[in-house]
Amino acid sequence: MDRERCCVRLSVQPSRGLVDEKFVVLVEGALPGVQLTVRAAHQSEDGHSWEAFAHYNANATGAVNVAKDPSLGGTYSGVEPMGLLWSLRPVPGSIPGLRMRKMNIQTPMVVTISVYQGQLTEGFVDEVPLASVVVERWYMAPGVRRIPITEGGLTATLFLPPGPGPFPGLLDLWGGGGQLVEYRAVLLASHGIASLALDYLTNKMVVETGKMVDNQYFETAYSVLREHPQILGSRIAMLGLSFGASVTFKLAVYSQVVKLRCAVCIGGSHVQLVEGSVEQMLSVFNEHANKTRINEKNEVIWRDLVLPIPTDPKLKVDVGRIRCPLLLVVGEDDQSWPAHESAMDMKEMMERAGNSNLLTILSYPNAGHLIEPPYTPHTRASRFREFRGNQTFMALWGGEMVAHSRAQEDAWRKILVFLRENLYGGSNPGPASLSNL
Ligand SMILES: *[C@@H]1O[C@H](CO)[C@@H](O)[C@H](O)[C@H]1NC(C)=O
C-alpha cells in the first residue's frame, strides 16, 4: 500500500488542449495487477459538481493506459479513450436536469483527473488519491480574437482565427433557449473558420422593445459578417441547431440577401410557416408545446410537435430550391424535434427537384437532439426555459450516452471537413491544436 502511495504516477497528454482534442491518460508505477479507479471531476460555471470514473487493473508492469485498456466498470466500460469526459455526470445528490454549457469561453473547462486505489464508486471526497493532474480544455485556441458586435442592433460576437486572414466566415445559430452562446463559434474559429455567434431571441433590441426580431435581423448579421475586412465575403456558411436550423433552412432558400457557400443543420426541421415571421414560427411551436405530454418521469415530450410531416407546401421550406451544399445532422432518437423524419422528407423533396447532389445526411441511431462538439457530456433531459416562457420545464432531448457520444465525435469531424471543403475550396488549413501552436 505504501508502495502505491509513493510511486504511482499519473500523466495526461496534452494537459492543456482544445475541447475536441483527444488526450492520453497514463498511470504508471503501480503494483502489477492492482485494482485502480481513475476519476474525472469538474465544477461547472454554475457551481455544480460533475464526475466520471472507471475501474482498471494495472498490467504486468504496473501501468494503465486509458486510451488502450478496458474499463471494467464505472460510468463507462470497455476501451474508451475519452470516456472520462463524455460520461461526466452530476455527482449523486445534485438537482435533476443539469446540462453542461460553457458560457465564459475565455476560461478553460478545468477537469481534475485522479487515480485511486481499489474499485471506488462513491465517497471520492473522503479518499486521498494516489495522484492527480489538473487538465485544461479550451474552446478558444491561442490567438483567436473575440470581437463583440453591436452594429446594426445586433447582439453578437465575432471570433477570428489566429493569423492574418482574411478568413471564410460562418453565422452560428442556437435554438429556442436564446442567449448569446459562444462556445461552438469560438471552437470553429479555433479551427480556422471565422464565426459569428448571434443572439436572435434574447438580444438587446428584443429586451428593449419587447418585439421579436424580423427576418431582416439575420440578413443584417450576414451583411456585417460579409463586409468585415477580415472576412472573405463570398465564402460564408451558416450553421444552426434546433430552431436555429429552421431559420437556416429559411434563409438559405428564400433570402435575397443571404448567399451561402454551404449550410449545416443539426436536429432541425424544415416544417414551418414559410411566410411567417420568427414570432409566428415560434408561436406554432409553442401551440404544440402546450399540448405536450408528460411521461412517468415528469419529462415533457414534444415528439408530436409537427408530425406527421405536412404535405402542404406552405408549411415547409422548399428545399428543392436550395443552391448550396447542405449537411443535415440528425439523431434518430431525437425526442424534441422530428429531425429524422424531416431529413427523409427533405431528401425526397430534393430528389424530386433534382438537387439532391447538394445533400449530405448524417443520421445517427440512438443519438438525441443535442449533437454538440465532441466529448460534451450527453444530456438526455434537462431543465429548459424558453426564451420568453416564464416557466422552466424538463425537456427530453433523447439519445443513449455511448451512441450519442460517438455521434458527436463523428459528426463534428465531418462538419469540419464539410465546412473546409466548401469554404476553402478543398484546401485544408489544418486543424488548430494547442499542442502544436
Ligand atoms: C503495460 O502498459 C504500459 C502502458 O500502456 C505499456 O507501456 C507496457 O508495455 C505494458 N506492459 C505489459 C507487460 O504489457
UniProtKB/TrEMBL annotation:
SUPFAM superfamilies annotated for this entry? alpha/beta-Hydrolases (SSF53474)
Which segments constitute the Acyl-CoA thioester hydrolase/bile acid-CoA amino acid N-acetyltransferase domain?
Answer: 20-151
| Top-level taxon in the UniProt lineage | Eukaryota
The similarity annotation says: Belongs to the C/M/P thioester hydrolase family.
* Active-site residues, as the UniProt record annotates them: 242 (charge relay system), 334 (charge relay system), 369 (charge relay system)
Name of the protein described by the UniProt record: Acyl-CoA thioesterase 19
Return any one Pfam family short name: Bile_Hydr_Trans
Q: Give the source lineage, highest ranks first.
A: Eukaryota, Metazoa, Chordata, Craniata, Vertebrata
Instruction: Name any one GO molecular function.
Output: fatty acyl-CoA hydrolase activity
Q: Record's Gene3D superfamilies? A: Acyl-CoA thioester hydrolase/BAAT N-terminal domain, alpha/beta hydrolase
User: Residue limits of the BAAT/Acyl-CoA thioester hydrolase C-terminal domain?
Assistant: 214-424
The processes (GO biological process) annotated in the record are:
acyl-CoA metabolic process; fatty acid metabolic process
